[in-house]
Amino acid sequence: MPGTILENLSGRKLTVLVTVLLLSQLGCFLVGLIAPKPATSQGLLASTCLDTSPNSSDVDHWITPKCDRKIDLEKLQPSDGVKPEQIVFVVEMPLFGLDFSRWQQNLVGILQVDLLYDNALEFIVELTIDARLAYSDKIKHTRTPWKYYAHSKEKRYMDCSLDPTQVKDLEGYPYNCSMVPLFELGSLYHDFYLLNIRLPYNEKLMENVDLRRIQDIYLHMIHMNGGFTRVWMSLKTFFFPIIVGIMVWFWRRVHMLSRTPALLEYMLLALGGTLAFLDLPLEYLTLWFDMPYMLLVSDIRQGIFYATLLSFWLVFAGEHMLIQDHGEKNSIKLYWKHLSTIVIGCLSLLIFDLCERGVQLVNPFYSIWVTPVGTNLALSFIILAGISASMYFLFLCYMIWRVFKNISIKRSVLPSMSQARRLHYEGIIYRFVFLMLATVVCAAITVISFILSQVAEGQNKWDENMELELSSALHTGVYGMWNVYICAMLMLYAPSHKQWPAEPVCSDGDEVEFSRLPTDPSPNEISSLTSFASKASIE
Q: Pfam families, from UniProt (predicted)?
């Protein structure tokens, strides 16, 4: 009875296959090296304008940077009669003479408020922000009028500090205040955006009562690079038909057998399906349709893939523990404790994501990071996610160590076997050990990239320095690794339909075929390695 392709493929063909896979992995990494960086940030200084109709109920009442009357905040005096609600901070995005591209996918706005020294200023300043967002598109030789996009009144908290020992004259000296997240757009469907910010003052409602002397307001924009998006979409377009084709080929070979599919084969099919779902280049639709929910959809696809990949590795190691005491080895029930923790962890991350990105579909100015409690909660989620991922990797390494330990025990009896059987199992063991080591490397890189991505995504909202930037090579390299690894697993663990004699042909060492021995009595196993450990008597 034939086993898997991993067992039966000749050494020369296996070398060619591994070489092609490694070159594909190297190609993904090199593409990332020459690709633009994933994201770009720009700082825009807000224009300070006077609104003569601050109480206008017209939703399309907008103040542009070319306003009739601009205000110099440093020269503004109480005798000028300007009320706080008349002061509008205006930002037009992007920079003058440029326009957004739909290839840039999304936009994050972070607010920086420069405050000057005031002896009554609290070091934690509560900001009440009345923010309105509009959009405009290019038409022939001009652009459309500004149209309403979103409006919200939000609270933000700035942490300000000042070291009086470093400055002799504090008057007019700027505070060092933290930046605060303002908005996040899940799509960049329009060419231009306009932001009107007001800082209303109301003692009864305690709005901006702690705010003192404002020098300037900056908006820091962060958006994806259009060039990187093109590279990313090209990789998805390349890998999607390949993984679908390999899945169809794999499942067709499984169904050609007389036995029912094994648990590992079901898990491989599920893993390939989630990878195909991740590879599906849905982002092309954003070039023609306004899809602000694409960020949420991408997070859900990524979460489903992570859950399936982590579950597969546990089942993969467990199925090769070579312990045959249970009659239900091919049942998913044996792994319910391990898989339930993965499901709970992924659901927790999904709920956390829905709490922010889900609400942002209605209100792009919403952020879970706006309060100290929300910030601490979000940071706790990120820290726990990192700890959980690290613990998972350690547990996976422990399971694989048990597999290797079990193999080494069984391997000690190989010298007492006949030459045919010894060569058969030695070849399988060498290949399987290599595949297990590749799995450990893939798991380690996946866990590290997951932790780095969580930190990089969150730091823009709690750390004004924004020092960590994931390179394009890391993104494309990890993405290519997932595709190469899963394609390899589907191909190597597909059933082999070759029939070989009991004695392998040894005239050329590179051409030895490690097929299942005709005497192996385990029709429900997909690997000769598991039947090797289950034999009651060994020659």
A: WLS-like_TM, WLS_GOLD
- Pick the last residue of a domain from 191, 208, 224: 224
Verify that 236 and 382 share a domain, yes or no.
Answer: yes
Same domain for 313 and 286: yes
Select from 237, 222, 196 the least CA-distant residue to 105. 222
Assess whether 34 and 175 both reside in one domain: no
How many of the other CB atoms lie within 10 Å of CB of 313?
A: 24
Q: Summarize pLDDT for 377-398 with one digit per residue, the tens.
A: 777 877 888 888 888 889 889 8
Element (H, E) at 132: strand 124-136
Same domain, 171 and 303: no
For the beta carbon of residue 445, count every other beta carbon within 10 angstroms. 16
CA-based nearest residue to 239, from 478, 531, 505:
478
Q: How long a stretch of residues is the chain?
A: 539
Among 224, 255, 271, identify where a domain stops: 224
If asked whether residues 231 and 339 sit together in one domain, one would say yes
Please check whether residue 267 lies inside any domain of the structure: yes
For the whole model, what pTM was predicted?
A: 0.83
Q: Measured between alpha carbons, how far is 510 from 7 in angstroms, rounded to an integer?
A: 14
Contact 179, 160 (CB under 8 A): no
Q: What is the C-alpha to C-alpha distance for residues 464 and 41, in angstroms, rounded to an integer? A: 12
Q: What is the pLDDT of residues 112-169, one digit of tens each?
A: 998 887 776 677 888 899 999 999 999 888 899 999 999 999 998 888 887 766 666 6
CATH of the domain at 245: 1.20.1070
Q: Can you tell me the distance from the alpha carbon of 378 to that of 372, in angstroms, rounded to the nearest whole number?
A: 10
Helical spans, DSSP H, in 256-329? 263-279, 294-319
Residues in contact with 487: Cβ distance below 8 Å, sequence separation at least 6, in sequence order: 21, 242, 243, 246
Which amino acid is located at 137 in the chain?
D
Contacts 24+ apart (CB under 8 A), 77-85: 82/50, 83/54, 84/198, 84/199, 84/200, 84/201, 84/208, 85/51, 85/54, 85/55, 85/198, 85/200, 85/201
383 and 526 both lie in a single domain: yes
Question: Containing H/E element for 156?
Answer: strand 147-161
> For residue 67, what are the contacts with CB-CB under 8 A and spacing of at least 6?
47, 49, 50, 88, 90
For residue 179, which of 127, 109, 112 has the smallest C-alpha distance?
Answer: 112
Distance CA 147, CA 56 (A): 15
Enter the tokens of residue 265: 């084969």
Domain annotation covers residue 539: no
Domains in the chain, number? 2
Residues 205 and 321 in one domain: no
Q: Beginning with the edge strand found earlier in the chain, give each strand of the sheet holding 87-93 in spatial order.
A: 47-50, 87-93, 192-198, 124-136, 147-161, 176-177
Residue 269 maps to a domain: yes
Same domain, 25 and 51: no
Q: List the domain range (segments joined by +) for residue 62.
A: 39-224
